[in-house]
Design brief:
This protein is an alpha/beta fold. Helices cover 38% and strands 13% of the residues. The structure holds pyridoxal-5'-phosphate (PLP). The site of pyridoxal-5'-phosphate (PLP) has 15 residues, from helix 3 and helix 4.
């Protein structure tokens, strides 16, 4: 049997036909840049995230960068984020000229350790960027409390957590602003690159609306030094259709995750994902840990099970950050996780037979 990591080819026929109709309409209208579907999607996505504004941009990385720029965060400023994340989180901070300050994650949930965050605050700190990793929000209540006490902005990296909730509130509505990615493999994925900023801050939303479009609201009049980072109309049309089935897809992911967790209970040294109390995980990724990770991954791949590592090289050990002050021994927990974690296939259409095949192989191996 072959179990793909993610199966984008087998979408339900009705969904495919709705997406094609939406795309056909864009082709007929030829309004490819900031056409009506962009505004429609922005309105629907803001409502979904239970906040006031959503702004479509070109990618998740751009969403993070635009938030930082709109908050006037730049050279001389520090932004605290986690060592265990996709590199784009840190890249966004570096690319506006600010300094990413990394802190460790909680060993059970892989999200920002609030105590480590507080310990890293100094006079240059301007913001905190918790990452809602693998589909679970960071522990936002203590993070928000610490940030408010120190007068820091809170920027959610929600690129992996469309629809997740923290104590009843949606990812994207928890901080001052949030960044989402619509990379095709995300829980809400486009047919190419795309991203969004969500916020309930009207002034911030207006700044980003202009900044993503050459600093302009009115054509050929430019109030700020902006960029070209817009969500394509075609992508917005696709996303508008897919947003309607996001909750259904997330529920299917949760069911699949529950099946894995049940079947993998007490197997060798294996650790299954922990869900924090009050958190509604959307399982963008289902990540296990074992001391025999490399051998297990090789075995599963040989048996036709596609499994990946998110991420094999932590941010502080990436060559791109060679010139920084980080050393190999920094962030020991993150370093250890990078040698132990393995992401198993999980997606809305995964079958019980596919999952049973994966878990039987893991049991046999371990
Ligand atoms: C945690 C995190 N932050 C930021 C990004 C960047 O998103 P994009 O690929 O749309 O630029 C990603 C994308 O995978 C991500 O996982």
């Amino acid at each position: 049997m072959n179990v793909p990591f993610l199966d984008l080819k087998n979408q339900p026929a009705e969904l495919c036909s709705d997406i094609r109709s939406a795309m056909d309409q864009v082709l007929a209208d030829c309004n490819f840049i900031l056409g009506k579907p962009v505004a429609e999607f922005e309105e629907a996505f803001a409502a979904y995230c239970e906040c006031k504004y959503a702004l479509g941009v070109a990618s998740g990385l751009d969403a993070l960068k635009l938030i930082l720029r709109a908050m006037d965060i730049g050279p001389g400023d520090e932004v605290i984020t986690v060592s265990h994340t996709f590199i784009a989180t840190a890249l966004a901070i570096s690319s506006v000229g600010a300094t990413p300050v990394l802190v460790e994650v909680d060993p059970a949930t892989y999200t920002m350790d609030p105590a480590a965050f507080e310990a890293a605050i100094n006079g240059r700190t301007k913001a905190v960027m918790p990452v809602h990793l693998y589909g679970q929000t960071a522990d936002m209540d203590p993070i928000l409390e610490i940030a408010r006490r120190h007068g820091l902005k809170v920027i959610e990296d929600a690129c992996q957590s469309h629809g997740a909730r923290c104590n009843g509130r949606r990812a994207g509505s928890l901080g001052d602003a949030a960044a989402f990615s619509f990379y095709p493999g995300k829980n809400l994925g486009a047919y190419g690159d795309g991203g969004a900023v969500t916020t309930s801050d009207a002034a911030l939303a207006e700044r980003i609306r202009a900044m993503r479009n050459y600093g302009s609201i009115r054509k050929y009049y430019h109030d700020t030094l902006g960029e070209n980072s817009r969500l394509d109309t075609l992508q917005a049309a696709v996303l508008g259709v897919k947003l309607k089935v996001l909750d259904e897809g997330n529920a299917a992911r949760r069911d699949a995750a529950a099946r894995y967790t049940e079947q993998l209970a007490s197997v060798g040294d294996l650790i299954t994902p922990a869900v924090r109390k009050g958190s509604e995980h959307v399982f963008h990724l289902y990540v296990i840990q074992t001391g025999r990770r490399d051998d297990l991954q090789r075995y599963l791949l040989e048996q036709g099970v596609e499994c990946l590592i998110h991420y094999p090289v932590p941010v502080h050990l990436q060559r791109a950050y060679d010139s920084n002050h980080w050393n190999a021994g920094d962030f020991p927990l993150t370093g250890k996780l990078a040698t132990r974690i393995l992401s198993l296939p999980v997606f809305p259409g995964i079958t019980e037979a596919q999952q049973r095949y994966v878990t039987d192989l893991i049991k046999k191996f371990l």
